[in-house]
């Protein structure tokens, strides 16, 4: 079984104060994009995870492993061999690990002969972004990621995504946001947006100031890319990945390729779906 596990961008991210459990409720419009990890699953004699394309853990802290173990708390699943080919930049705010976990849940559903809807109840236990990556398309998520509302699918533009040569910890960015007194984000005026996005929802990321305070190089990076592109540059999630809007994929790819000092740069179309099973070469 092979799955495509797409990246996402946060078109906005509005954060509320930490609750009594230590979590931050949020509201965010999320869009999946055509930048995908590939994951192969096969029944095996024992569990095994092999990762290529990025230096990430293949142990118990990997979200794929956590997803499988969480699924097994509800339904038995035989041992599986998993080959994860990473394409999405890690620790960047793009949701790659969460998308991989969503793919693992769908694979477990198939192995356990359960409908894909069975994964929906388990997804929030693994991470806030896992449910929205199961769904995909244009989605507003609220609460702790478990409440989703499908929106009319966006179209008419592509995005350039660039990831600078450093990482940011999600936990550290949220902690810095708390320490700074919960600053709001800068709202992007409509004149900087594609027509399809104007008069829709506020475009701001409340975590941007915290991310820049934690890593000042991010502010320089956003400023320089904005001058190069002559357009607005937005932060996705807790960063440090940033993106901008372009008329089509070719223009977006050219813009992404013009940026130096990156560990990943792509121009991609919007994706109207989330994690999906696909045919592999052997099929």
Note down, in words, how this protein is organized.
- The chain contains eight helices and twelve strands.
- The chain has helices spanning 63-72, 96-111, 118-122, 130-135, 170-179, 208-214, 216-229, 249-257, and strands at residues 2-10, 14-15, 26-43, 48-52, 80-85, 138-143, 147-150, 158-164, 234-235, 242-246, 262-269, 276-278.
- Helix 5 (170-179) packs across helix 6 (208-214).
- The chain has 283 residues and is of the alpha+beta class.
- The mean pLDDT is 95.
- It is globular, with a radius of gyration of 18 Å.
Using brief descriptors, characterize the structure shown.
12 strands, eight-stranded mixed sheet, alpha+beta, 8 helices, 283 residues
How would you describe the shape?
globular
- Uncertain runs are none
Q: What is the count of helical runs?
A: 8
Percent in strands = 25-35%
**Class derived from helix and strand content:** alpha+beta
Rounded Rg: 18 Å
* Mean pLDDT figure: 95
N-C termini distance = 9 Å
- State the order of secondary-structure elements, H for helix, E for strand: EEEEHEHHHEEEHHHEEHEE
Largest sheet: 8 strands, mixed
**Fraction of residues in H or I helices:** 25-40%
E-strand count: 12
